[in-house]
Amino acid sequence: MKSESAKDVHKLIAWAKLWQAGFIILGVLSLLVGIVTLVALLADMFIKGGPLISWRFFTSFPSRNAEEAGILSAWVGSLLVMFVTALAAIPLGIASGIYLEEYARKNWIADLIEINVANLAGVPSIIYGLLALGLFVYAFHLGDTVLTAGLTLAILVLPVVIVTTREAIRAVPSSIREASYALGSSKWQTIRSHVLPYGMGGILTGVIVALSRAIGETAPLITIGALTFIAFLPDSPVQSQFPYISFAWLMSPFTVLPIQMFNWVSRPQPEFQLNAAAAGVVLVGMTLLVNGLAIYLRYQFRKGIKW
Amino acid sequence: MVGKNPENISALQTDQTKALVRNLDFFYGDNHALKDINMPVYANKVTALIGPSGCGKTTLLRCFNRMHDLYPGNRYKGEILLGEDQKQSNILSKQVDPIEVRMNIGMVFQKPNPFPKSIYENIAYGLKIRGHSRSFIDDKVEYSLRNAALWDEVKDRLQDLAVNLSGGQQQRLCIARAMATDPEIILFDEPTSALDPIATLSIEQLILELKDQVTVLIVTHNMQQAVRVSNYTAFMYLGRLIEFDTTAKIFAKPAVKETADYVSGKFG
Amino acid sequence: MIDQPIKSTLAKSKPSNLVRNLQEKLIEFLLFLAASSSVAITIGIIYILISESVSFFQEVSLVEFLTGTEWTPLFADAKYGIWALLAGTIVTTAVALFVAIPIGTISAVYLSEFAPEKLREIVKPCLEILAGIPSVVYGYFALLFVTPLLQRFLSDLPSFNMLSPGLVTGIMIIPFISSISEDSMRAVPASLREGSYAMGATRLQTAWSVVLPASLSGISAAYILGISRAVGITMIVAIAGGLQPNFTWNPMESAATIATFIVSVSLGDLPHGTIEYQSIFAAGITLFVITLITNIIGHFISKRYREIY
Fold first, then answer.
1. pLDDT digits over A253-267, tens only?
2. B100:A10 CB<8 A
3. Most-buried pick from A260, B242, B257, C25 (CB within 10 A)?
4. Do A230 and A214 share a structural domain?
5. Chain A touched by B136 (CB under 8 Å)
6. What is the mean pLDDT of residues B73-96?
7. Do C134 and A28 touch (CB under 8 A)?
8. Host domain of residue A68
9. Total domain count for chain A?
10. Which long-range contacts (CB under 8 A, 24 or more apart) does A229-233 make?
């Protein structure tokens, strides 16, 4: 039973290759869509906003006058909010990741937590804003403060920290754990002195990616009622008088960079839209810097540890 | 060395050459993996490639269907001439499309690798690529499954996923898949190394039956398997072909000391 | 498990072991508390959304909410028909997926099966950057770059419309879809690909007939993630889509989505306990249920088509 008729193999292959060439063109075009957009977005913002970026822009408060307006309260606010977010999300997220990966037995509680974390990662950020509004602002009476904003974003990025911590820990080979146990270490000693240090590269990368996401978040902070016109700075955490450290800034009203940018974009006057572009340049610059740091760290840790 | 000159093997004169490897060198980047290989592959016979791990037997096998072309940095030198004596063409030539080579030379892998499709679709895959009609494919699927002694086991569940078959059945399916397109040569790369002894036996049985229809080239690390299934055996060592002869001769009275040491189990 | 205690010197706990065991237990308990916090968050979300919505539905009938097509909370005769917001959500999501699914999938196939290693190394970080840009920046881009660009071809396109933010949202979620799809395609074992090449298949035939079916689980998970992202996207549509609720299926019109309605209400002064305040929670619970259902469907699709090689 040989072939029904002598097919022209060459013609067949030529057609198959023509299709393939067509697909390759399509593939390159698809990639270009994303990349051209990225370039257009960055170029448009830099051209419009770049000239406005100056020392004055960083050191001025927002103003009714577009030329005098700056982002001082916004970047200070972003920094303080990020500080609270990091302080809350990092320990909680890493601890959860350790528990789920190293301690959790295979039972329904562990399953529940696991499914729950996966689902939380898919919840739209605006919903976290509603949670924060109902819980932090009204139930706990924390108001629309730096503390509320920091906690809101911490909850928002917690799933990211948990998931990346688990992945990083999982990548540590079990032979290393067994070697530690064989030397008489307890479980926690093994985790603290072997699993965590070796997984630190991945954990750190995850934490930074999470924070870079938090920097750009806008919607949940609008929900909790972040003001957009703040012409003052929160109390400095460091004071010249005893006890030298103040926590008043935690309860201070705030604005952050994305909200400031949103405010400027929403105004009809073209001068403010230039300000929005400049704020966008700073915001994207910050995100890129943080992401670049994550990529660099990942590279360094990958290079350092081999098994 | 006897192996260097297949033409000198008097006992082989009656067999037709299906393919001829001439002065073949192969490089993985800077790694000179095959060195000056010369050997015939006889039509409708089973030729076994044996040798210790890393000797280049799988590398040589994968030259026959240009699998090395899939990965950058690989380089051939020399020729593999395919076809009956009068119309031989070098399948390693840059002018020859590797896809065309693979349309004429089938392959069965170490681990059974059925596609994540139905049993029917697995067999039909190669035929669809070759642009055959539906009715032809239907006939051919049944024929190939019967040929691979699988038809009775799967005829009622042709639409089931192939991955649900047992390991031995999967491997027979892969053989049926390769045979469905009527290849001139079928390459086996240690086809039973992932299987249990009973499944191994059925695959070996199948290989013996196949040689009436096709020329078989098989890499095996199991010397008993080479004795059981092959007519000719090539012993390779460190990227060189040390000896090529009838299987009976290689295992009974090899001409080269390394071959004798290997087949008697002194190394490998 | 050992039922009988081992009779040896090892069996006697020394005091130092006791302290250590206590410490171990304490640490495990603290870690457990941390892990439970995520469950507490979910409970918190559900509790807040439900408790505020309950008050809302005492004022507004559930039937009117679920079937109405007018959303006019500020009118004297206030109407709360979620379809006015849902239509906007569906239209922007559909526009976004119309862009992201084909482009994301083709990019993934190209990157996984065709692209040279060098190109992958350049393109992948670029896509990561695309995914990392804050949504408010995309909003700016949609309003002040894409809309004017579209208006050159579509002269009657208003300054606020759903088309432009939908397209930009689509581009924003391309990286999510392409990177998850690509990961699952690259996880397809080389032996399957070689099996296909050995049959004489081209790369495209192999990608289409072997790699895609084998990675269906990961690809569908990617689509689901894309959908739940697009549904929840807020700032892009809030900036470029206009904030007026508008029951329309025409992407060329301006409209609000569920998420942008919440934002627009929050921008104003929002007295606690009023019906406007409660309405954003009613809208929120709708959005939450939609994403929950999407995620559950995704979960089952992944299970149904789990990797089968």
1. 778 889 889 888 888
2. yes
3. A260
4. yes
5. yes
6. 83
7. no
8. 54-303
9. 2
10. A229/A62, A229/A255, A229/A263, A230/A61, A230/A62, A230/A73, A230/A74, A230/A77, A230/A254, A230/A255, A231/A61, A231/A62, A231/A63, A231/A73, A232/A61, A232/A73, A233/A72, A233/A73, A233/A76
